[in-house]
Amino acid sequence: MIKKTLHNLKKNWPPITICISITAMACVVLFHHFRSQYEHYRNSDLVYSVESKILDWKLRSRGVDETETKVGILAIDERSLSKFGRWPFSRKFYSQAFANLKKIGVKWIGFDVVWAEKEQTLLTDSQPLYRTINRTNYKARIKAMDRMTENSPSDIKFARAIKEFENIILGYFYFGDKAEFERTAGHREPFRDLDLMLSSAIEAVDMPEGRELKDYNLPKAYGVVSNTPIYLNSSEHFAFFSNDADDDAINRWVTLAAKVDGNLMPSLALKGAAEFLNSEIFVFFNEAAIEGIVLVNREDEEQAIEIPIDPAGYGRLLIQHRGPSQGFQHFSLADAYDDSFSNEEREALKGSILLLGATATGINDIRPNPFDPAIDGVENHAAAIDNIVRRRFLRRPATMIETEFMIILGIGLFFSPILIWGHAITSGLALLVFLGGFWAVDYFFWFEKGIWAYLAVPCTQILSMFLLTNIFKYISEEKDKQFLKSAFGSYISPELIEDMYNTGEPPKLGGNSGILTAYFTDIQGFSSFSEKLTATQLVELLNEYLTAMTDILLEEKGTLDKYEGDAIIAFFGAPMPLEDHAVRACTVAVKMQYTLLQLRKKWTDEGDKWPQIVKDMRMRIGINSGEIVTGNMGSRDRMNYTMMGDSVNLAARLEEAAKQYGIFTQVSQFTKDLTDDKFEMRELDTIRVVGKKEPVTTYDLLGIKGMTPPGLVKLKDTFHHGLQLYKDMKWDEAIAVFKQSLEMEWLRYPDLKGKKTNPSEIYIERCEEFKKNPPPDDWDRVYTLTKK
């Protein structure tokens, strides 16, 4: 027992090594990925790239989230540009728009726009000041002129509107890359006017003793671009709206807090959600990174929202996107200015938070999300606010890392034995069960609960184990088969060697009986070919012909019994059972006749290489279905897989008898009954072949139904009419109809030159004979063939 076990282990040691190695490699790859994620939040390796694409697919398969939300977009759209002028239009128009929105009941407005420079004073805006100058004394004139140079009337009006609305969050953006700041900012002071925005710095920060903000590797600003001071002095709420796209430009995360010149500043998403919920922002640090971000209601500390952040602790939120563009309701700034909202829009605006952003083509900020490559960037900020407000998060908890390692080790532990010792089908089924189950658990247990689990590494692991172990087993099996072929190939057929290997049993004499289809082909007048061709030409011709025909046979899962010179003997339905064996046999016949037509054209195009007899080559086919015995037949030392039975003999006789009717494919009634009327067949005759007493009705196979030329269908119908008249012994009427079908017989073989025998001609002659010598009263309409 121990010896057998050791031998089994030795034999399977390579696949065991494969499974262990792949499992170890999967753990290393995952470990390296997690380490790189902790080193820098923007580190997008191959694992992350693949997993993020899978996450995108899951979001898209989930569909659009149409749940009602109080987050909307105050859109600077095409209508706004049409009303206020080209961008950037005068800021004086915002005053009336904000006043109308406040009157409707909008709670908060966040700016995804920044006005870093003063607006140039327009002549129309300065007219009131010019009037003042003309009416006042010298000192008053000087003061009015100073006001005109310090701030434009539009800036003053806009600043007043911000102050009167009160609940407006002014946005700004920061440079997260030092080189980018130095390249674009020039001599600009990196943190100009930051002191005016520190009222929004996050004060509620909990750090371990002795730790400071500078000790943490968080997203960091190397410079900011903020609004002009007159606007900053009009508000107490500020937030950055810098985007945080992955390397493929898709926005999956939003940074909630960043280091800005030694201060922890909130993003538009975090600040917007906190103010909308009347909450204070609390940030908790551990020794290495941010441990948690919590919003605590200012009026009720029991009401708190813990925002899930990235497991590396960079303070980033994984966005649960609602869908493609227009996922949030857009309210035109033009409508806000005119106060022309519909009743439904007014209801939606009450108690809402709006993000002001450009959506008009040409000025909008395109920021792709998993649903849409051309979505307005403001919608990504809206999605993050919506996630926090509705507590509908998509998260990547740190505990998932441990779970994923356990999954990888579990695959290695439980699936390795199945892959190593199980049959390929068993291991394949196990693979499918795992993949299906794993994806189902992920989608319905994790993803539906907002948890992002990694799928690519475990799936790649088990697929690699499956493929490599089966490749190894296949190579080993092929070596074993090759040994059997080299040892027994000269005695038994390759099919038996395969069967012997699969069953582990030596071949035995005997066979099985069943309803199959026998198939015989023969080249017409092939004995004459040897007189016209050299031995080399004959071999070349036969090889080309037999190769083309055998390929068709095997393509339709036919079994090649043997070649007998130019003849092909085959059958359908064994050793592989085929329910449609008769259909396949007829299909092969149609394809073979068509392929021979193409070969004739090819040989004709080759000119003098071939004599005319080759260019006119025809093949006859006989097909019959019935009880046939197949199996290993021969001596105990040498045998072959072949067929026997009366049904086989009838197929051979049909092939031979086709010559007497001038056709090339003759099918029995037994075969036709099994083809489900899928072919156009012309009833030919009811005959009694040589060597058989029972008559059989035979058919001329014209083609596949629906693909047969209309002329041949008409030929069939006309011929059938004549045949019925023949059976009714109406000889003159039958002759008249057969003469009609005779005119169409050439359609059967258009390239057949000269006058040849055909069924219509045969029946005309028979009718003429029966007119002279009528059949007896008990005539059974059976024609007895007197020769093969």
TrEMBL record:
Record-linked SMART domains: CHASE2 (SM01080), CYCc (SM00044)
Mind telling me which residue stretches traverse the membrane in this protein? Answer: 12-34, 405-422, 429-446, 452-475
Give the source species.
Answer: Pseudobacteriovorax antillogorgiicola
Q: What protein name applies here?
A: Adenylate cyclase
Origin superkingdom: Bacteria
Q: Which InterPro entries match?
A: A/G_cyclase, Adenylyl/Guanylyl_Cyclase_3/4, CHASE2, Nucleotide_cyclase
Q: Does the keyword Cell membrane apply?
A: no
> Does the keyword Flavoprotein feature in the UniProt annotation?
no
Guanylate cyclase domain segment(s): 517-655
Q: Which GO terms describe its molecular function?
A: adenylate cyclase activity
The entry's keywords = Membrane, Transmembrane, Transmembrane helix
Question: Which Gene Ontology biological process is one annotated for this entry?
Answer: intracellular signal transduction
